[in-house]
């Protein structure tokens, strides 16, 4: 039990207030049923924090997908900046410091893909690299060695070592580097969560996220989707060891569900198997996992009072909100009926 402090009380109240101002299932249903254009969406979500932001900074919408992506990224960056300006409890400061490199890694992966494909892709305006105005340097790097040298120059040697091993124009080594960057982030975040109040709950939540990421990779592989091999497994799961995940790679979809019997993931595996059998679409994997992930993590983190769990849950919910908004606006821009993405929209409330 945490000692009640002014900082914890204020921050927890703020986070719960911000969560209440997020996009709910009611907003999503209203968007799907009534929105035919960007302005319709903005009108439906105008009472949310994201809606207010977009109406202020992008009242006329946007001309391109990349422009839309930048606005959503800047909104999330603004949310993180607001948190950083508070006098947060030390545990919450540690969570933010460990969490924000996630976006640096995302930009590194985008830059690596740009080198592989010989094309510059837009980077996200989030993370320390963005804050320090280093994104242009990432975009301008023409080889993995140039990227590695850049990371050495800015004292990010852990990343430099990983990127340096990439063979130029080699898909396999690029994928391996992307996985190693993710793995570094996962380990760093887990270590930070272990050493704070409610550390056992936080690491359980993080372990569930790792398990579900590994399960997603297993199901996509079993269903024939090109991606990470069975050797690329994230460590630190809650219930599934690396060996257990490797064994799943050799099973059929129905056998995986049977192997996970009596675990927290049994229903997930069964739902994936049933949905895939009905639709024959590998997108069932991510759709099912996302819904169960929000339920599992919400039950674990959301009820905690005056705890760093409040911050981790807020970050999870906020990322989910950005994901939903991105999907909605992209669907409208592609002139696809929003009813077709109803099952892809997941909310925490």
Number of helices: 18
Low-confidence stretches: none
Total beta strands: 0
State the secondary-structure class.
mainly alpha
Average pLDDT figure: 92
Principal-axes geometry comes out as globular
Q: Encode the helix/strand succession as letters.
A: HHHHHHHHHHHHHHHHHH
Strand percentage: under 5%
Rg over CA atoms: 20 Å
Terminal CA distance reads: 26 Å
- State the share of residues found in helices, binned by percent: 55-70%
Q: Describe the biggest sheet?
A: none
Task: Quickly describe the structure.
This protein is mostly helical. It has helices spanning 6-20, 25-34, 38-44, 49-57, 65-85, 90-99, 101-117, 128-131, 135-140, 144-153, 157-164, 171-194, 199-222, 242-248, 253-259, 266-279, 283-301, 309-333.
Describe the model.
The protein is built from 18 helices and no strands. Helix content is 68%, strand content 0%. The model has no long low-confidence stretch (mean pLDDT 92). α11 packs antiparallel against α12 (171-194) and α13 packs antiparallel against α17 (283-301). It has 349 residues and is mainly α. The protein has helices at residues 6-20, 25-34, 38-44, 49-57, 65-85, 90-99, 101-117, 128-131, 135-140, 144-153, 157-164, 171-194, 199-222, 242-248, 253-259, 266-279, 283-301, 309-333. The longest helix has 25 residues, at 309-333.
Q: What is the fold's blueprint, element by element?
A:
Blueprint: H1 6-20, H2 25-34, H3 38-44, H4 49-57, H5 65-85, H6 90-99, H7 101-117, H8 128-131, H9 135-140, H10 144-153, H11 157-164, H12 171-194, H13 199-222, H14 242-248, H15 253-259, H16 266-279, H17 283-301, H18 309-333
């Amino acid at each position: 039990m945490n000692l009640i402090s002014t900082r914890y009380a204020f921050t927890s109240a703020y986070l719960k207030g911000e969560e209440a101002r997020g996009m709910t299932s009611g907003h999503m249903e209203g968007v799907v049923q009534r929105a035919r254009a960007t302005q319709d969406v903005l009108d439906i979500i105008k009472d949310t924090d994201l809606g207010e932001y977009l109406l202020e900074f992008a009242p006329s919408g946007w001309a391109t997908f990349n422009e839309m992506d930048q606005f959503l990224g800047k909104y999330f960056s603004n949310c993180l900046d607001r948190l950083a300006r508070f006098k947060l409890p030390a545990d919450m400061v540690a969570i933010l410091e460990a969490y924000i490199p996630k976006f640096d890694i995302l930009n590194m992966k985008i830059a690596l893909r740009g080198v592989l494909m010989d094309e510059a892709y837009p980077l996200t305006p989030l993370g320390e690299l963005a804050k320090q105005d280093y994104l242009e340097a990432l975009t301008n790097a023409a080889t993995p060695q140039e990227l590695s040298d850049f990371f050495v120059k800015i004292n990010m040697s852990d990343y430099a070592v990983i990127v340096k091993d990439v063979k130029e124009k080699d898909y396999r080594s690029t994928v391996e580097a992307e996985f190693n960057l993710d793995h570094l982030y996962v380990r760093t975040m887990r270590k930070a969560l272990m050493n704070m109040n409610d550390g056992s709950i936080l690491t359980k939540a993080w372990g569930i996220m790792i398990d579900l990421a590994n399960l997603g990779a297993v199901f996509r592989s079993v269903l024939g989707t090109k991606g990470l091999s069975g050797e690329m497994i994230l460590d630190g799961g809650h219930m599934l060891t690396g060996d257990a995940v490797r064994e799943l790679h050799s099973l059929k979809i129905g056998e995986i569900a049977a192997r996970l019997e009596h675990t927290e993931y049994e229903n997930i595996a069964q739902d994936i198997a049933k949905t895939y059998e009905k639709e024959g679409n590998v997108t069932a994997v991510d759709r099912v996992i996302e819904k169960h992930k929000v339920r599992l993590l919400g039950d674990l983190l959301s009820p905690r009072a005056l705890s760093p769990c409040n911050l981790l849950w807020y970050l999870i919910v906020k990322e989910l909100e950005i994901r939903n908004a991105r999907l909605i606006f992209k669907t409208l821009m592609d002139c696809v009926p929003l009813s077709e993405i109803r099952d892809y929209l997941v909310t925490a409330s």
